[in-house]
Amino acid sequence: MRQAVKPPRTRRAERAEETRRRILVAATSLFTEVGFAGTTIEAIAGRADVAVETVYSRFRNKANLLDAILAPAISGRDDGRSLFDRPEIDEIRSCPDQGAQIRLLARFSRGVLQRTDRIHRILQTAAAVDANAAAVERLDQQNRHRGQRAYVDMLLANGPLRDGVTPELATDTYAALANPTTYAFFTGQRGWTPEQFEEWLVDSLARLLLP
């Protein structure tokens, strides 16, 4: 008896990836429309046209869905590579002038904050009501702080910082200026454009960090 031919592994992987993407799109839209607390796994499954068990088996809870949505928004790609694999980082690292580096860093940070603005707002409200989401938020803050320390190290490769500014203080300063809450305040509450935020960030970083 002739055995059935199994489909290629790559085809199964493609179907699995398409299912994952449908789930994440459905979760993003529902989190935006009705909020994190008001969204159920059942509603996500229904909108994605998959079984509820599929969502649970892949993500286990809504906080993991948020994390899976946030990661590619930060890196600007959905291929598993990190933020530091982007070509802009190579440009910043190889730039020999601190002032030019500040401008490149501000543009880079603005891009990340602009891409993640919506999901960070959702995460902030979710963290207030869900312990798993709060853990995702803490990890996101830690990762952002480590990344900003790497930015400071790139500046230090080209010269000293302002008198009295240690690498640790410079990192904390960068973190206070370029974070989702500050970006949301200026662009959401005060009506700034992303470009205005970028120019403010350039000026602030240069004044506070550079000699």
Structural write-up:
It contains ten helices and no strands. It is mainly alpha-helical. The protein has two domains: 1-60, Homeodomain-like (Arc Repressor Mutant, subunit A), CATH 1.10.10; 82-209, Tetracycline Repressor, domain 2. Helix 1 packs across helix 2 (41-48). The N and C termini lie far apart (80 Å). The relative contact order is 0.10. Residues 1-6 have low confidence and may be disordered.
CATH architecture of the largest domain: Orthogonal Bundle
The CATH C-level name of the largest domain is Mainly Alpha
Strand content: under 5%
What structural class do helix, strand and pairing data support?
mainly alpha
Number of continuous helical runs:
10
Q: How large, in whole angstroms, is the Cα Rg?
A: 21 Å
What's the total count of β strands?
A: 0
Write a concise synopsis of the structure shown.
The chain contains ten helices and no strands. The protein is mainly α. Helix 5 (about 85-95) packs across helix 6, helix 6 (about 100-125) runs antiparallel to helix 7 (about 130-155) and helix 8 packs antiparallel against helix 10 (about 195-210).
